[in-house]
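User: I'm writing a short report section on ligand binding and want a predicted complex to refer to. Could you take this sequence and oxa(dethia)-CoA and write out the structure as tokens? A short remark afterwards would be nice.
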Amino acid sequence: MPKRRATITAVGHYVPEKVLSNADLEKMVDTNDEWIRTRTGIVERRILEQGGSSDMGARAAEMALTHRGISADEIDCIIVPTVTPDMFFPSTACLIQEKIGASRAWGFDLSGACSGFLFALVTAAQFVETGMHSKVLVIGVDKMSAITDYTDRNTCILFGDAAGAVLVEPTEEEGYGILDSILRCDGSGQNALYMRGGGSLNPASHATVDRKDHFIYQDGKAVFKVAVVKMADVSAEIMERNHLTGDQIDWLVPHQANLRIIDATADRMSLDHSKVMINIDRYGNTTAATIPLCLSEWWQAGKLKRGQRIVMASFGAGYTWGSILVKWSVPDLSTATK
Ligand code: UT7
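Assistant: Sure. The structure tokens for the complex follow:
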């Protein structure tokens, strides 16, 4: 019997309206537009002024369901990669289940930081490939502004808020769908990028607040050095083991943390830079949302087309990293169910 393969059948996204530009940040910390653009590629990012991650995630999920032309009560499972859940519990997946009215679903949050979306996509694919489920929503969402210290120029220029959602279903189309994945983690990177406070090791207290333990800390240089190697390596590895060359890949869909890391990955893949999805200039680093946000925007713009071969790649806190090879099977927007 041929293997039941999982595929992405719909995409959606949500970005809040409020824009925080480099010029705005110049007024808040000792930084400048030129430094931010040249060191990171970021020009502006979005900030959610009211509500939590579940509000953005629900909007992204609803867009995906609308494009697919199905109602939320057909969903079996909701997986929400995030490092900024509305609260520790109940899970953001439960909150989104209620908001969208997914009456038959179960779900859970997944902690994989910037690789959370890739980890969750592979998890969803397992439920579909085993036959346990037929419709799994993966919603990458982060409200990074909730854990960003806007007096710390090392981090506050980097992050933004957004959500991206994909629907995962089975496909019988030969050669289409989620074809291969390589996922990794290495806890020796734990001290380079973290939020120390609020968990069981350092529960919230006046002291943790005074120490700013409830904000992101990043040793940018240390993370950069590893990220630039690992994200490129894992992208090249998935191409090599699938006997693919750069001209056989239509899109690299990279996690959007730093334009220099993205460029290095494309170079390593011998990929023309016009084939790289980049929206870091408009949204900054939205952690678990970067990759599905790209997929949704590029599909809606008619640039990501059915039949194209894409490689998604990420690197983030943990460390966590990975790559996924997909042959895109979502019908082009002109032919999709509206
Ligand atoms: O998404 C999760 C994974 N995260 C990543 O992949 C991020 C990886 N790291 C990076 O993207 C980069 O390391 C950053 C963008 C965070 C920083 O860029 P960098 O080129 O590594 O800069 P740096 O931290 O080495 O700092 C260079 C200089 C320093 O000044 P000195 O010591 O050379 O005088 C910093 O103090 O730039 C200074 N600096 C700034 N200047 C203006 C640091 N932040 C700023 C700022 N504005 N916002």
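A remark for your report: Residues 72 and 327 are 26 Å apart (CA to CA). DSSP finds eleven helices and 13 strands in the chain.
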